[in-house]
Amino acid sequence: MRDKSESIGHSRRDVLRIAAASAVGLALPGGLSAASTAPAPHGTAFGPLRSAGVLTFGPNNVLFVGDIIGAKIHALALREADLTPQAGIELGNFHNFEGGDLVRGLDQKLAALFGTTVDKIVINDMAVHQPTQQIFFSVERGHGPDAIPALVKVNHGQLEVLELNNIPHSQVSIPNEPAAKDMLEFDPQQMYAITDVKYYREEIFVTGITNQRFASTLHRIPYPFNSNAATCTVEIWHPVHGEFETRAPIIRQVIRELNGEPYLFAVYGCTPLVRFKLSELKDGAHVHGDLIGELGYGANPLDMLTFTSPADSKDYLLVTIDTRSASQIAVSDLASAPAQPTGGGIDFGPGGLGRTQRAIPIKAEHIAILNSKWAVLIWRHPRTTYRLDVSTLALPYFFDRKDGMSEMNWPNGPDPFHYREHRNEIDTVGRMLPV
Amino acid sequence: MSFQPKLVFDSDPGDPRFGCIRVRHLPPDLVSFLQGKFHSLLQSILRVKVTEPVGAGVDELPDVSGNYQVLERALRFTPYFPFESGIRYRASFDLRPLGRNALTDILTLEFSFPSRVSTMATHVVQVFPSDDLLPENLLRFYIRFSNSMQRGRAEQEISLLGPGGRPAPDVLYRPPVELWDRSMRHLTILLDPGRLKRGVGPNRELGPPLKTGLDYTLVVGSGMRDVSGRSLSKRFYKTFCVAEPVREPIEVNQWVVVAPGGDTRHPLVLVFPRPLDWALLLHTITVASEGGRTIPGRIAIDQCEKRWSFTPSSPWVAGLYKMQVESTLEDVCGNTVAGPFDRPLSQSTHPAEALVGSDGSSPIFQFGITVERKRLEFEPKSLASTNSSPASTAGLTVG
User: Fold this and answer.
1) Do B78 and A142 touch (CB under 8 A)?
2) What is the rounded (10 degree) CA torsion for A107, A110, A111, A114?
3) CB B67 within 8 A of CB A26
4) Pairwise CA distance, residues A187 & A180, whole Å
5) A176: alpha, beta or left, given left = phi > 0 and alpha = psi -120 to 50?
6) Thinking of the domain B124-243, which architecture would CATH place it in?
7) What count of Cα atoms within 13 Å lies in the side-chain half-sphere of residue A406?
8) Which stretch of DSSP H or E encloses residue B233?
9) Does A311 contact chain B (CB < 8 Å)?
10) Is B314 strand, coil or helix?
11) How far is CA A103 from CA A156, A390, B58, in A?
12) A8-66: per-residue pLDDT in tens?
């Protein structure tokens, strides 16, 4: 279809144009004379972003942002002033599996912050800056072609817009993005142009689709950015569909070193878990991933991460899924799991590591690891479904005792886990070094 | 004479929403005090809030975010995001957080912006296919709106009524994500493919979604919301009668090609024996010079999607042109040049399927068009190949 977004009111481009002419803000001396009564230009918040998608932190406080509309990955080198250590924040009662709410009514508060109504708020991703334990969101105001992107952080329970214009910035273009008009059966292809970004040893790994014949693509880009990006196309055997697939993209990725060898683990829609050797991801290569687990049909992965269990000190992979419980798999199994056979018929699974996956009761729209004891998630609280909250969940079981009815909640009920002995223990973010 | 401080809204002449809030006539000693102060201090005295009720269990909502400037006699707040139409804002200036008693009055200002396009209510412009006689195996509708729309209401607002105005259940496919184009002005509504494909479960249980000879009405409810959050001006109805199904591939060689004259900007016209898919017609047929350069121009589709016209941006120059038709072109039932949308499994492969390239790439049908000054004649030529894909070429000489 040919209609262009330019025709609709104030487009994102208009706003950016105005933003580019501004950047004065508080930097101006107070006794300013000329132009002192002219309205200041708007839009100093979103700097180079045209959209705000996946987020990931690299070292030295660099925040990477996937920007599908701009077909770029941005690297924002956050300054000391952009980050606030969150020492003293109450996280919950760790012993008793009682999480806490860090922000109640996230969507309503974002709407107020952006001067709009809650139906205009889209939250695309969440990332935690580990050294300060500060939480960042990528958000857009509006659903239409004139949606405005922003990055928002939580500072001691309050939401703050991250002003981007003065933050040191570099960017890299993602080549061969699908054209705006190209459709999948149900969505525009561009929606999947950048599905995930991860940093590993002076490189970022960007997954998504391109307009090429083998659409599923992995870009391997040095950071700091230079012109040496490598792009390979990706093929997997998808047991639930009984076919080799080259178009559906990796949805989430995790990079881990196991037995001295770095691997990229990828999860796809409907829900293969696939292993790639990083050494095989070379420019121009068409790489075949080893299917090591089929986690179950009809599911969309939401987030994938690893954490160390405070219970047994072992590392686990966690994949949250929209339609059912999250999957937990021991990281030690990831390297040793045999590649599943290819070429058979349709097999609805689960298979491989999917057969031994542990179901974890997480119902989160986004989840991230906050520290060694807590995860943070965005979810609709089971008793307040109209409200989107940012809350904590204790590792490694990811369940919140407050939300369930059980025998132990009765006065004088049984107390096999000694909850009553620990009733008043509230865990807080500890002291931390300056950024 | 000294003026009292006053809270005002400074409007941007181009668009009132791009305005800012200013406290003017501030005493010089206060201005000196505010200079160089932190954002958080300025934010504590000049605040702008959305006047929305707070949801249960949510503590106080934050202020609208923006930046602050201390000016010669004033303090100015500019929001990061332009103010929105239809939302009420409340600005307040209150020096109590500073512990200063010089100015005890709290100033407030409530403001809002009327909808920018209130004179032009959003409506359904057209539904494709445009014909009111549609085949039983119709695959999809496109609904074209006069403005960009919001997601989320298609399932409840768009329905199909059967004979007698009774709702026809399980006829429209309800995808998990509404199928909007990027401009958010065009919505694709599919009829249930499971009921269209003969022999699969839903088709065996429920039969085809539409029945030949009966009348139906597609209804677009006024509860659809445009990008500004407004409902449609009125409900939209498209009533149509159902004809026999069409299960034939598109036969390119049955198209009538009406050639333009040289040195004119007359359109190059294709006339089809039956309606083709409106959206695909817009981008699957292209005209190129003999050297392969795409000719810019404007496409028009009319006569119930049975006529495609291409008007070049510059006049035709005598010479050979190529017209390419991508094999992804479909008619209103999803039949393509390669074959019908569905057919019994036992039926042998349609010859046109041989056109699919061995590497899975789409074949391209290609016409040669010669534009000359004097003569006008139509002369089909033999099949020829382009690139690695088999293709069909017809020749056309134009005068």
Assistant:
1) no
2) -160
3) yes
4) 11
5) left
6) Sandwich (2.60)
7) 11
8) none
9) no
10) coil
11) 9, 5, 9
12) 233 332 332 222 222 222 222 222 222 222 333 345 578 899 999 999 999 999 999 99
Determine contact, residues A128/A136, Cβ cutoff 8 Å: yes
- Other CB atoms within 10 A of residue B68 CB: 23
Q: Between chain A and chain B, how many beta carbons pairs sit less than 8 Å apart?
A: 199
The three-state secondary structure class of B7 is strand
3-state secondary structure of B120: coil
A293 neighbors A357 (Cβ within 8 angstroms): yes
Q: Sign (positive/negative) of CA torsion B262, B267, B268, B269? A: negative
Q: What pLDDT is attached to residue B369?
A: 64
Q: Domain-by-domain residue ranges, chain A?
A: 179-301+322-358
**Residue A390 CB-density burial (10 A; 0-12 exposed, 13-18 middle, 19+ buried):** buried
User: Inter-chain contact A42–B82, Cβ cutoff 8 Å?
Assistant: yes
Neighbours of A166 (CB within 10 A): 14
3-state secondary structure chain A: CCCCHHHCCCCHHHHHHHHHCCCCHHHCCCCCCCCCCCCCCCCCCCCCCCCCCCEEECCCCEEEEEECCCCEEEEEECCHHHCCCCCCCEEEECCCCEECEEECCHHHHHHHHCCCCHHHEEEEEEEEECCCCEEEEEEEECCCCCCEEEEEEEECCEEEECCCCCCCEEEEECCCCCCCCCECCCCEHHHHCCCEEEECCCEEEEEEECCCCCCEEEEEEECCCCCCCEEEEEEEEECCCCEEECCCCEEEEEEEEECCEEEEEEEECCCEEEEEEHHHCCCCCEEECEEEEECCCCCCEEEEEEEECCCCCCEEEEEEECCCCEEEEEHHHHHHCCCCCCCCCCCCCCEEHHHCCEEECCCCCEEEECCCCEEEEEEECCCCCCCEEEEEEECCCCCCHHHCCCHHHCCCCCCCCCCHHHCCCCEECCCCCCC
CATH 2.60.40.1220 fits B252-344+354-398, yes or no: yes
| Residue contact A108–B55, C-beta within 8 A | yes
How many other CB atoms are found less than 10 A from the CB of residue B387?
11
Q: Which amino acid is at B119?
A: T
In eight-state DSSP terms, residue B237 is: E
Q: Contact A30/B184, CB-based, under 8 Å?
A: no
As given in the structure block, the two tokens for residue A310 are: 């405070």
Please state, in angstroms and as integers, the Cα–Cα distance from residue A371 to each residue in A178, A200, B377, following that order.
38, 19, 78
Interatomic CA distance for residues B22 and B72, integer angstroms: 12
Q: How far A177 CA sits from the closest chain B CA (Å)?
A: 15
What is the ipTM for the molecules in this complex? 0.74
Cβ pair B78:A42 closer than 8 A: yes
Q: How far apart are CA B294 and CA A98, in angstroms?
A: 64
Taking contacts as CB-CB distances below 8 angstroms, the residues of chain A near B54 are 105, 108
- Report angle CA B182, B183, B188 to the nearest 5 degrees: 70
Cβ atoms of B276 and B331 within 8 Å: the answer is yes
Measured CA to CA, the distance from residue B157 to residue A365 in angstroms comes to 27
pLDDT 10s digits, A83-130: 999 999 999 999 999 999 999 999 999 999 999 988 899 999 999 999
A247-273 residue pLDDT tens: 889 999 999 999 999 999 999 999 999
Q: How far is A110 from chain B (nearest CA, A)?
A: 8
CB contact under 8 A, B148 and A145: yes
Contacts of A408 (CB under 8 A, 6+ apart): A414, A415, A416, A417, A419
> B6-111, what's its fold?
Immunoglobulin-like (2.60.40)
CATH 2.60.40.1220 range(s) for chain B read: 124-243, 252-344+354-398
Search chain A and give the residue with CA nearest B49: A112
Query: In the predicted model, is pLDDT for residue B243 greater than 90?
Result: yes
